[in-house]
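---------- Forwarded message ----------

FYI, see the N-acetyltransferase domain-containing protein record below. Original note from H. follows.
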Amino acid sequence: MPVRTALPTDEPAMVGVLTKAFFHEDLFGITIHPHRNQYPEDVRIFWHEKLRKHWSTPTDRLIVATTTEGGEEKITGVAVWERQGDDEGARKVKNEWIDIGPNAFPPLPTTHNRALDPTKATILEDAFPHFASLWAGPRASNWYLSLCGVHPSYQKRGFGPPLVHWGLERARKEGVHASVAASDGNGKFYLRCGFDEVVGNVTTGEGNPLSGVAGGDVLFMFPGGKEGEGKILRRFNIISAKGYCGS
């Protein structure tokens, strides 16, 4: 399935994909947007703002999966890969970034998201100290899959893996790690795609704001691969793995 770098003109379609993909997911849906059923269109505000922040970050790359229907291209999936670290590879990614400028997107009619629980708006940032150690030391230099979703109408049709492979291939070429925090039920999917093993979970730890949120397994792909338990687990699950690409 084809994937390509996202364009600013793709933003409305990308927002539509992510709104549908994560509407019932435990973190972005249930926890952050408890009033989404009452105000379903307001959820789009969250994704507009999130994507625009990624577009303005030099280390982030936005990718879309596409198909052709009726002779026209249709976006079926979205991924955001972040190049973390302060090594030469990370600096190169920053230098290659193209600033699309502040006027690339039209102003939103409103930023008042009635579907949102304001106390959960920064839950990921608030929880980070509880799992930051998972990315310490050599793992700090990595390609991190911070977001990956496929529209429900196109799930289990092969659109997710190419979005994952985009970053894994770059990590392999640079000789650095790749990582992801998986949404509930998607750990096996990432193992099938090429991640080596589960190294922890972002919801654990006393006082962690993410406590009780389903999912959160952190998976790593190691530079050059890693033999042992992780590889065995990946081979064992490769046939039975299911689920859409979500994090």
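H. also flagged this: The CA atoms of residues 143 and 167 lie 6 Å apart.
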